[in-house]
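Pasting as-is:
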Amino acid sequence: MTRVSGTRTFGAGSTTDDVLDGVDLAGRRVLVTGVSAGLGVETARVLAAHGAQVVGTARDLDKARRATEAVHAGAVHGGGLELAEMDLASLKSVRACTDRLNAGGRMFDLVIANAGVMATPKGVTADGFEMQFGTNHLGHFVFVNRIASLFRAGSRLVNLSSLGHRASDVDLDDPNFERTAYTEFGAYGRSKTANVLFAVEFDRRHKTQGIRATAVHPGGIQTELGRHMSPEAIQLLIERMNAGRAPGASPAFTYKTIPQGAATTVWAGVVADADAVGGKYCEDCHVAELVTDPDFRGGVRPYALNPDTARALWAKSEEMVGETF
């Protein structure tokens, strides 16, 4: 499926270079979490290659320095990359990073909450939260809200969600799986639904200031995100997605390249109309349709865009992290 942005048409096969072709980002300042591998590195690369000044966060700065050598090499028109240390699985680390950014006082035109973990064995963060919800949602919830004063009017927040949100709605009564049986993809689904709901509520709270938020599904990409899954488990997942597809349903699953996977992120953050994507979930460089049919792989579940759940999640997240925004 493709959609037209201005006079250009983008879809599932579009790359980051396609989306930003002819776009000048000189003077723009962008923050990307998770720039030590995969989508984060590609996102930083293409933004810097179009003149943006990028701040990239990473838990392991040495790994990030090695991974982003090409970002520095390809930067033009004043673009570049500076790294900031942050571990999303530790609120102490998150708060320390935000304190440094706030002390610097430099504004952002775009913040991309890219980092995350997927299908991890049951575990907890440094603060005792279930690992996937704590890292993917709560870490970003605290990080983004603590630097909200650095969002320039007209800026955007892009949260990376996933098709995985279809595995589960959030459970605000038992977010840490204290009473619920833990499954790797059930927990991942909760965290990815939370990423969408956070964008919905952030957008509602900030759009009167000209600040918009959206969530995106990058597509299936072979990156380090799947490091906790065996090749057999990945193949079984693909077979399940492809099995029993009815006529007219989604085509058989195929992997995207990393530049194709990061395309929707930069499309939603830079190219798309802000009113069109604000408070929405995007995929393949377009705003996704609401879908309840289990045989249709694309689209977004209605529960992920529910404004009442989004407000309740915000309140629950504040309670869990002990901080009000």
